Amino acid sequence: MIQQFVIHEEDYRRITAVCDRLTRDANAKSVFLVDKNGQLIASSGATDHIDTTSLASLTAGNIAATGGLARLLGEKEFSILFHEGERDNLHISIVAQKVILVVIFDSRSSLGLVRLRVKKASEELAQVFNELQRRGDAMGLPSPFAEITDEDIDNLFN
Fold first, then answer.
1. How far apart, in whole angstroms, are the C-alpha atoms of residue 50 and residue 71?
2. Which residue in 41, 76, 142, 147 is deepest, having the highest Cβ count within 10 Å?
Protein backbone atom coordinates (compact mmCIF):
# COMPACT_ATOMS: atom_id res chain seq x y z
CA MET A 1 0.00 0.00 0.00
CA ILE A 2 1.27 3.47 -0.88
CA GLN A 3 1.19 5.92 2.02
CA GLN A 4 -0.52 9.28 1.54
CA PHE A 5 0.48 12.33 3.51
CA VAL A 6 -1.06 15.64 4.36
CA ILE A 7 1.73 18.17 4.00
CA HIS A 8 1.12 21.50 5.69
CA GLU A 9 2.85 24.71 4.65
CA GLU A 10 5.45 24.49 7.44
CA ASP A 11 6.28 20.90 6.41
CA TYR A 12 6.56 21.97 2.77
CA ARG A 13 8.98 24.75 3.71
CA ARG A 14 11.15 22.25 5.61
CA ILE A 15 11.12 19.84 2.67
CA THR A 16 11.92 22.59 0.18
CA ALA A 17 14.78 23.88 2.37
CA VAL A 18 16.35 20.40 2.38
CA CYS A 19 16.00 20.14 -1.42
CA ASP A 20 17.49 23.63 -1.92
CA ARG A 21 20.44 22.81 0.35
CA LEU A 22 21.01 19.49 -1.45
CA THR A 23 20.99 21.24 -4.82
CA ARG A 24 23.59 23.71 -3.60
CA ASP A 25 25.80 21.33 -1.57
CA ALA A 26 25.88 18.59 -4.23
CA ASN A 27 26.41 21.13 -7.01
CA ALA A 28 23.40 19.54 -8.72
CA LYS A 29 21.39 20.97 -11.58
CA SER A 30 18.09 20.08 -9.94
CA VAL A 31 16.50 18.01 -7.21
CA PHE A 32 13.00 16.53 -7.13
CA LEU A 33 11.04 14.82 -4.40
CA VAL A 34 8.31 12.51 -5.69
CA ASP A 35 5.79 10.31 -3.92
CA LYS A 36 5.48 6.65 -4.91
CA ASN A 37 2.24 7.46 -6.78
CA GLY A 38 4.28 9.63 -9.15
CA GLN A 39 3.19 13.02 -7.80
CA LEU A 40 5.76 15.77 -7.49
CA ILE A 41 6.12 16.96 -3.88
CA ALA A 42 8.92 19.51 -4.22
CA SER A 43 11.64 20.63 -6.61
CA SER A 44 14.73 22.79 -6.54
CA GLY A 45 17.26 24.16 -8.99
CA ALA A 46 16.95 24.45 -12.77
CA THR A 47 13.52 22.89 -13.35
CA ASP A 48 12.02 25.17 -16.00
CA HIS A 49 13.19 23.07 -18.95
CA ILE A 50 11.95 19.77 -17.46
CA ASP A 51 8.47 18.30 -17.79
CA THR A 52 8.14 17.69 -14.05
CA THR A 53 4.87 15.76 -14.36
CA SER A 54 6.47 13.23 -16.69
CA LEU A 55 9.65 13.10 -14.63
CA ALA A 56 7.67 12.33 -11.47
CA SER A 57 5.50 9.61 -13.03
CA LEU A 58 8.39 7.98 -14.90
CA THR A 59 10.53 8.00 -11.77
CA ALA A 60 7.79 6.27 -9.78
CA GLY A 61 7.40 3.75 -12.60
CA ASN A 62 11.15 3.17 -12.64
CA ILE A 63 11.13 2.52 -8.88
CA ALA A 64 8.17 0.14 -9.25
CA ALA A 65 9.88 -1.79 -12.07
CA THR A 66 13.15 -1.95 -10.16
CA GLY A 67 11.21 -3.20 -7.14
CA GLY A 68 9.96 -6.07 -9.28
CA LEU A 69 13.52 -6.90 -10.30
CA ALA A 70 14.63 -6.77 -6.67
CA ARG A 71 11.90 -9.23 -5.65
CA LEU A 72 12.93 -11.60 -8.45
CA LEU A 73 16.41 -11.63 -6.94
CA GLY A 74 15.16 -12.06 -3.40
CA GLU A 75 15.84 -8.47 -2.35
CA LYS A 76 13.36 -6.20 -0.58
CA GLU A 77 14.20 -3.29 -2.89
CA PHE A 78 17.08 -1.51 -4.55
CA SER A 79 17.10 1.76 -2.65
CA ILE A 80 19.53 3.59 -4.94
CA LEU A 81 19.56 3.83 -8.74
CA PHE A 82 22.08 5.63 -10.91
CA HIS A 83 21.74 6.47 -14.59
CA GLU A 84 24.70 7.94 -16.44
CA GLY A 85 24.09 9.96 -19.58
CA GLU A 86 26.30 11.86 -22.01
CA ARG A 87 25.57 15.22 -20.35
CA ASP A 88 23.42 14.56 -17.31
CA ASN A 89 23.26 11.88 -14.66
CA LEU A 90 20.39 10.78 -12.43
CA HIS A 91 20.75 9.62 -8.86
CA ILE A 92 17.47 8.19 -7.60
CA SER A 93 16.98 7.04 -4.03
CA ILE A 94 14.12 5.94 -1.82
CA VAL A 95 13.81 7.95 1.38
CA ALA A 96 12.41 6.21 4.47
CA GLN A 97 10.56 3.77 2.18
CA LYS A 98 8.08 6.61 1.60
CA VAL A 99 9.25 9.03 -1.10
CA ILE A 100 11.70 9.19 -4.01
CA LEU A 101 14.56 11.67 -4.17
CA VAL A 102 15.88 12.47 -7.66
CA VAL A 103 19.10 14.41 -8.22
CA ILE A 104 20.11 15.53 -11.70
CA PHE A 105 23.76 16.48 -12.00
CA ASP A 106 26.44 16.91 -14.64
CA SER A 107 30.25 17.02 -14.81
CA ARG A 108 30.37 19.95 -12.37
CA SER A 109 29.68 17.41 -9.63
CA SER A 110 30.57 13.78 -8.97
CA LEU A 111 28.70 10.65 -8.01
CA GLY A 112 30.64 10.50 -4.74
CA LEU A 113 29.68 14.04 -3.75
CA VAL A 114 26.04 13.47 -4.71
CA ARG A 115 25.87 10.22 -2.71
CA LEU A 116 27.41 11.91 0.34
CA ARG A 117 25.01 14.87 0.23
CA VAL A 118 21.99 12.67 -0.56
CA LYS A 119 22.69 10.60 2.55
CA LYS A 120 22.47 13.67 4.80
CA ALA A 121 19.41 15.07 2.99
CA SER A 122 17.70 11.67 3.15
CA GLU A 123 18.11 11.57 6.93
CA GLU A 124 16.52 15.02 7.24
CA LEU A 125 13.67 14.15 4.87
CA ALA A 126 13.06 10.84 6.65
CA GLN A 127 12.60 12.75 9.88
CA VAL A 128 10.02 15.04 8.26
CA PHE A 129 8.07 12.17 6.67
CA ASN A 130 8.17 10.07 9.83
CA GLU A 131 6.67 13.05 11.68
CA LEU A 132 3.99 13.36 9.00
CA GLN A 133 3.17 9.68 9.35
CA ARG A 134 2.95 9.91 13.15
CA ARG A 135 0.69 12.95 12.83
CA GLY A 136 -1.52 11.13 10.32
CA ASP A 137 -1.65 8.00 12.49
CA ALA A 138 -2.63 10.11 15.50
CA MET A 139 -5.52 11.59 13.52
CA GLY A 140 -6.65 8.07 12.63
CA LEU A 141 -7.43 8.95 9.02
CA PRO A 142 -5.96 6.74 6.30
CA SER A 143 -6.40 9.52 3.76
CA PRO A 144 -7.56 13.12 3.82
CA PHE A 145 -10.13 12.11 1.20
CA ALA A 146 -11.42 8.99 2.98
CA GLU A 147 -14.88 10.39 3.71
CA ILE A 148 -15.52 11.67 0.15
CA THR A 149 -18.02 9.46 -1.64
CA ASP A 150 -18.74 8.94 -5.33
CA GLU A 151 -21.98 10.84 -4.76
CA ASP A 152 -20.01 13.82 -3.43
CA ILE A 153 -17.87 13.82 -6.55
CA ASP A 154 -20.91 13.55 -8.84
CA ASN A 155 -22.57 16.45 -7.01
CA LEU A 156 -19.43 18.54 -7.38
CA PHE A 157 -19.40 18.17 -11.17
CA ASN A 158 -23.17 18.37 -11.79
1. 31
2. 41
HSE-CB for 145 with a 13 A CA cutoff = 7
Is the pLDDT assigned to residue 15 strictly greater than 50? Answer: yes
pLDDT at 1: 42
* φ, ψ of residue 122 in degrees (nearest 5): -65, -40
Torsion, Cα of 58, 59, 61, 62 (10° steps): 120
Residues paired with residue 45 on neighbouring β-strands, in sequence order:
30
What SS3 class is residue 109?
coil
Q: How far apart are CA 144 and CA 141, in angstroms?
A: 7
- The model's pLDDT over 70-127, given as tens digits with 9 standing for 90+, comes to 999 999 888 899 999 999 999 999 998 889 999 999 999 999 999 999 999 999 999 9
Instruction: Classify domain 9-157 at the CATH class level.
Output: alpha beta
Give the three-state DSSP class for 106: coil
Buried residues in 39-61 as b, exposed as e (16+ CB within 10 A): ebbbbbbebeeeeeeebbbebbe
Each domain of the chain, given as residue ranges in start order, spans 9-157
Q: What is the pLDDT of residue 133?
A: 84
